[in-house]
Amino acid sequence: MAMTYVPLKSSLIDEGEFSQNVDIELASIQKALLDFVRQHKEKALGATAKLSIDIVLKVHSVEANAYTITTSMKSSVPKRPASMSIAIGGTDVDDAGQMYVRDTGSDRDHPQQGKLFKTLGNDQE
Length: 125
What we know:
By secondary structure, the protein is α+β, with helices and mostly antiparallel strands. It folds into 2 domains: 10-76, no CATH class; 88-119, no CATH class. It is 23% helix and 25% strand. It has 2 helices and 4 strands. The protein has a two-stranded antiparallel sheet. The protein has a two-stranded antiparallel sheet with strand order 3-4. A hairpin with a 4-residue loop joins strand 1 (50-61) and strand 2 (66-76). The protein is elongated, with a radius of gyration of 28 Å. The protein starts with 16 loop residues before the first helix and ends in a 6-residue tail after the last helix. 2% of the residues are buried.
């Protein structure tokens, strides 16, 4: 039986596996971005998820008119947004350097951040 050839399409690269992998990776970065927005809310503004696809066509043999097709994918999803906390410096019972934060954690966006200083007996804010 004679082999037939058709024009190259992305759906035919690697016997269709390339297209399937693109769809899987695209679904993955969509989910990652949506999860990121759900977790970080307004801090997620401007976050991006990216899928980069490279398809390289290379001359394999001039005499045989043969080519190779190499593909690769690279994805990136947003990481935890940068944040800042506030601590005060002090010493522990052994006179070693120590930083202190509120027992509920330290969040610079919290309107009661100044309580940290009052809790430690320092009325400066």
